[in-house]
Amino acid sequence: MARVDPKAVLEGRIPGRPPVALIAGLTTTSLCAVIALGVDALYGGAGFWVGVILAILPIPLLIALALTLDRLEPEPPRALVFSFMWGAGVAVLGALLLNTLGLLYVTVPIFGEAKGHFVSATFGAPLIEESFKGAVLFGLLWFRRNEIDGFADGIIYAAMVGLGFAMMENITYYMRAYEDGGAQQLQAVFILRGLVAPLSHPLFTSMTGLGVAYAATHRRAQLLAPLLGLLGAMILHGLWNGATTFGLGGLGIVYLLDFGVLVTLIVIVSVERRGTVRRIEAYLPMYAGTGLVTPQDVRMLRSIPSRRAARRWARSVGGRDAGRAMVDYQLAATELALLHQRADRGVAEPHWFATRRDSLLELMGLARQAFLRTPPRAGAGPPWAPQGPSGFLQPPAPGPYGR
């Protein structure tokens, strides 16, 4: 198993190659974030550190909540980190510069002070900010299209970008609230932005994520779908910014709108997850001849609780390494089903499909060896196959994957 890098196989990248592009990207985004923080610190005084603490405080919980949507087929951590840092760095700094220039040289000179700020917030800021946030999603579509297997993936990446952007933006809002109104106003702003509606930016950008995900998994609307998604993000963002200028009534409307969008996204992810389960049931049985999967194993793969129970069994049988092998097996099997979905939709080039299929089957076979080398004691077999065969108990089948 030492000759195979499971993470590289699952992520569809060349093993052992230094992630030069990722390192350069993280360096750039981090530098942009530092510059943006420096601007806030320059003008923020003591309120800057208050804003930093309050802005960071809910982020781990919000990220954890977003990742609960991604348990069946988790995205590569490196891609999620880059997306978050893009939102916190490039998107924030770019929006700061263009929004400021727009106010100074376009909206305020044309419409006056008060109306200029309203026009900038309602029309200019959504266009600029969603374009910068969406740029990383368009980049994933262009450079890492095969990493996006469905709407859930688009939503997850969009959520990471949005959370990074919101964290940095909130620093400014908390800093200003502290300076203008002290602790009382800061408390009110934190409740509204940090507790009541902390997912606004992720929800806006999720519209772009949906469009990008559709383009990545379908042959039609390759350009139209992402552009419509970006337009939807801008409209939601503009409605939010415009409505908040009308007091509590406006706030109530946009909070209800956010809640409705959130519920819709959860429904989309739930429906798609059921579709993934159906594809696991449909496609994996064709590989029964390899000895890697049986009908009982397919039942184990179809739900999160049964997968979790399988990982517990694996750790009890062979320790941490066996538990890791079971995770590799489960993820590779899911990726195999999603690969067939791509082929059915005509978005999988035949040579790439064959290479990807073979690498996933090889990973499943190597993960399986961790159990066949040290078979469980009598009566301690896989709990999902108490009366039937399992690929984790059968002798290796002849052929390239069952060896």
Strand and helix layout:
Layout: H1 6-11, H2 20-44, H3 46-56, H4 59-67, H5 77-111, H6 113-143, H7 151-196, H8 200-217, H9 224-243, H10 247-283, H11 295-301, H12 304-344, H13 350-372
Give an overview of the whole structure.
- The protein is mostly helical and 403 residues long.
- It folds into two domains: 6-275, no CATH class; 291-372, no CATH class.
- The protein has helices spanning 6-11, 20-44, 46-56, 59-67, 77-111, 113-143, 151-196, 200-217, 224-243, 247-283, 295-301, 304-344, 350-372.
- Helix 2 (20-44) runs parallel beside helix 7 (151-196).
Task: Give the class from helix and strand content and strand pairing.
Answer: mainly alpha
Question: How do the SSEs run, as a string of H and E?
Answer: HHHHHHHHHHHHH
Mean pLDDT: 89
- Domain count, please report it: 2
Strand content: under 5%
Compute the number of helices. 13
The unreliable regions are none
Major pleated sheet: none
| Envelope shape | elongated
Helix content: over 70%
Rg of Cα set: 24 Å
Secondary structure: number of strands: 0
Q: What is the terminal-to-terminal distance?
A: 12 Å
Pfam family, one: PrsW-protease
Region (Disordered): 375-403
Protein name: PrsW family intramembrane metalloprotease
Keywords: Hydrolase, Membrane, Metalloprotease, Protease, Transmembrane, Transmembrane helix
In short:
The chain folds into 2 domains: 270 residues, no CATH class; 82 residues, no CATH class. The chain is 77% helix and 0% strand.
Give keywords.
13 helices; mainly alpha; 2 domains
